[in-house]
Amino acid sequence: MTTNTVVNVHNLEKTYGKANERQYKALKGLDFTVEAGEFVGIMGASGSGKTTLLNMLSTLDVPTKGDVVVNGHDVTKMRGNQLADFRAQEVGFIFQDFNLLESLTAEENIGLPLALKGTPSRVMDQAIHEVAETLSIADLLQKYPSELSGGQKQRVAAARAIVHRPSILMGDEPTGALDSTSARELLDLLTTINQKQHMSVLLVTHDPFSASFCQRILFIKDGQIGSEIKRGEQDRSAFYQQILNELGTFNE
Amino acid sequence: MLGKLALAGIKNRRRDYLVLLAGLTMSAAIFYMFANLATNRAFLKANAVINQASLIFGFGAVLLILITIVYIMYANSFLLSMRQHDYGLFMMLGATRKRIGELVFLETLILGAIATAIGIVLGLLMSQFLVGLLLDMLGLHLAHLSAFYLPAIIATAVLYVGLFILASLFNMVRLTRTTVLKLLHTDEQANQPKIHPFRQMVAAVLGVAFLGIGYWALAAIKTLQVAAIPLALVTITIGTYLLFRATLLVIIQGLRRTKWAKRHLNGFLLGQLNFRVYNYTRMLTIVSLLFAMALGAITVGSGYHRQLPLMANSIGTYTVAIHDKNTQEQALIDQLNVKHQATYTQKRQGKVVYYNAAELQQQPFELSKSAQLAKSLKHPKFYTESLTKFKKSGVQNFDFQSLAVRKDMGFYTPKILSAKQFAKQSGTTMTVTTVRVKDLVQDQKVLKRLNRMEVKRFALPEQITVGNYQSYEMMSGIFGGLEFMGYFLGIAFLAMLASCLMFKILSGAPGDKQRYRMLYKIGVRQSLMRRGIAKEIGILFLIPGIMGVIDVLFGLQMFKPIMASPMSPYLGIGSIFAIFIGLYAIYYAITLTLYWRIVLPKAPTN
């Protein structure tokens, strides 16, 4: 494993149900890596195991077998507070349903990961305003989530996910609840973050349009990696076509 | 089929239901015990020596009913919050509203009926044991108190079942009127209250003014008479509400701008409180009042308990006076912690009792400074005078006169003769022994036996003996009812108010569950979440607690006329406050544990 690898998944298996009950294998031995600064998409139909995989990577769930190494930490060996601290420091999340705390303003939501680390308030303020500029939400900071549109909420969520500079940003269908304009804006922002800040991004989606912003796409089917395509030097719309073609044959 | 599903839903949350059932059962049991006391005519007649007692019982009953209503309201909203998601799901699956309505109605009513039935049985048992114990501990004599009293059972059953029918109807209407989608997504929208500086200011000023009027009314109970209590209740309620409305938000939002808010979960805590406190203002107001009433009742009750012996100790100069003591009585006297003892020979003739000057010279009769002069109730000052002085003034002394009581309840006129004259004087000869003990309560049991023997041997038309112990017994009889009421109402109020608070807070738990799930996802440590919840709930308990203590400190003024100097409602309230706050803290701990269990996300396992 080189230091340039952010995520290294080896022989990952997840089985639901107890040994004496009827069991269901959600993941059947996955192997893949994500290099530093990569923008990787994971695609697959419902029930293919995408979300299970993301839960393993983000330590929200525990694998049955195999290793997951994120930025040098073997997450399968962590317990209790280590897991919480790992999520707080190494991973940034964007969820389909935003997961913003409606009792806090946008600014307080964004500042939460820094507050958890015990960052001094001056440093915190600066970090919040920097990330707010990047995501053009500076004028929304004092508002509560209920006063924001879906697109704005997701940008606030994105800000919260990157404000503490995690080693990887994970998105679980982040455009799922957005209209097409907002979705496009968000994906553009993710691309900018990926390129300017060299932050690795792992995007789980079933939407080909969202996936077309990635550099590399892994297709999961029935708990295994079925195929992999790379964007290379193509422009986005050509890559989009390639994805559609791949989906067409992949699901056969 | 739907009934089965509903039952399965209850089974899944049987722990929460147990808590709910236990709370309702306790409430019914307490109400039964109170109804037993308040409606038991024979008991009231035997104990209501002063007419205020029946008034206080009536007042207590009204308060208890009010609290019961509020309590059932909150318990019901907790029940509804647990069930609405399930019922929404059933409706989505095609159950008719009518059927759901029936189910909700039945569920609430059955739960209520079970709670009432168990509660009455529990109340019977508790009356049997606890009342006996409490009375024994307090050394009170409440005659004609039996645990089983049919009218009380009927009153409890009617009130509770009636309230539960209302609650069931309310739930039915509420569930059948709400849309399915709302039932399924009940995550409460945290509305963010805005601050209007001018309005807040006005509210604060008005709040303080109302509180001032309320506190004044309590202090001025002598002039306002019975009107003081309703006036104070209304003004203090409005005042507390306005004050909470005006200040809590400002404080919280002020704190949110500080650096402190940017550390760990503090910001989240303040955000939670911000919308909670606003939604809870009404409840916090009620709870603060109940807190005050409970604490006040216990303080007053214990005030009587602690101060009666003090009062009795300072009334006269001897604890008991035994006439013609026999060996058995002497043996009892030897068991006492005697501070001062004297024996005089009396010769009674006509309306005069003669004393021997030589005896009085040898053992001067003790006098005491009146309580006001002695200043301290705890240390009445005793002194003796020279015989010449005593001959002039002492014979007018009430304590001295009391040593010889005539059958028509008047006193023999005391006359002091020289030893020679005394020997010549004819008349019924008897001795009287005065005993003053160090602590009346400490020697209570022996004193009781002594007193009984004296009464048996010298049964005057009205069974009367003299001395501080006798006064103590008499006052216990008079104030015993009040004291008992104080303790009883205090404990009942506390149990119910804390349960109200508990259920109100717990019914917010399902909404919080999601928030803590989010925090868990973004990597907040369990310990940090636990501490955060402890702080949040702690503050919700603390606000009415503080306000309640302030209310009590002012409200005790009300009892000044009843607890006339040298007693004072404020004497030694520290320990009672401590015990009360301890009990309140237990409720906090229970609420917190339940909250943790509902809200905290569980770590994944293999």
Layout: helices, strands, pairs:
The complex is a heterodimer of chains A (252) and B (606).
Chain A: E1 5-16, E2 24-35, E3 39-43, H1 50-57, E4 65-70, E5 73-74, H2 80-90, E6 91-95, H3 106-117, H4 121-134, H5 150-162, E7 168-172, H6 180-196, E8 200-205, H7 208-211, E9 216-221, E10 224-230, H8 236-250
Parallel strand pairs in A: 3-8, 3-9, 6-7, 7-8
Antiparallel strand pairs in A: 1-2, 1-4, 4-5, 9-10
Helix pairs in contact in A: 3-4, 3-5, 5-6
Chain B: H1 2-12, H2 14-39, H3 41-47, H4 52-92, H5 97-138, H6 150-177, H7 180-184, H8 197-219, H9 221-224, H10 228-256, H11 266-313, E1 320-323, H12 327-335, E2 338-349, E3 352-356, H13 357-362, E4 367-368, H14 371-374, E5 382-383, H15 387-392, H16 398-401, E6 413-417, H17 419-424, E7 428-437, H18 444-457, H19 468-507, H20 509-521, H21 526-555, H22 573-599
Parallel strand pairs in B: 3-6
Antiparallel strand pairs in B: 1-7, 2-3, 2-7, 4-5
Fill in the keyword field for this structure:
heterodimer; A: 252 residues; Rossmann fold; six-stranded mixed beta sheet; four-stranded antiparallel beta sheet; B: 606 residues; two-stranded antiparallel sheet; 22 helices; 7% strand
Written account of the structure:
With 252 residues, chain A is of the alpha/beta class. Chain A has one domain: P-loop containing nucleotide triphosphate hydrolases (Rossmann fold, 3-Layer(aba) Sandwich), CATH 3.40.50. Chain A is built from 8 helices and 10 strands. Chain A has helices spanning 50-57, 80-90, 106-117, 121-134, 150-162, 180-196, 208-211, 236-250, and strands at residues 5-16, 24-35, 39-43, 65-70, 73-74, 91-95, 168-172, 200-205, 216-221, 224-230. Chain A has a 6-stranded mixed β-sheet with strand order 6-7-8-3-9-10, sandwiched between helices. Chain A has a 4-stranded antiparallel β-sheet with strand order 2-1-4-5, with helices on one face. The longest helix of chain A has 17 residues, at 180-196. The two termini of chain A are 35 Å apart. With 606 residues, chain B is an alpha+beta fold. Among the domains of chain B are: 1-186, no CATH class; 320-465, no CATH class. Chain B is built from 22 helices and 7 strands. In chain B, strands 1-7-2-3-6 form a 5-stranded mixed β-sheet. Chain B has a two-stranded antiparallel sheet with strand order 4-5. In chain B, a hairpin with a 2-residue loop joins β2 and β3. The longest helix of chain B has 48 residues, at 266-313. The A-B interface holds A 58, 60-62, 64, 80-81, 83-89, 91, 93, 95, 99-104, 108, 111-116, 118-119, 121, 124, 144, 146, 160 and B 189-192, 256, 259, 261-268, 271-272, 274-275, 515, 518-528, 603-606.
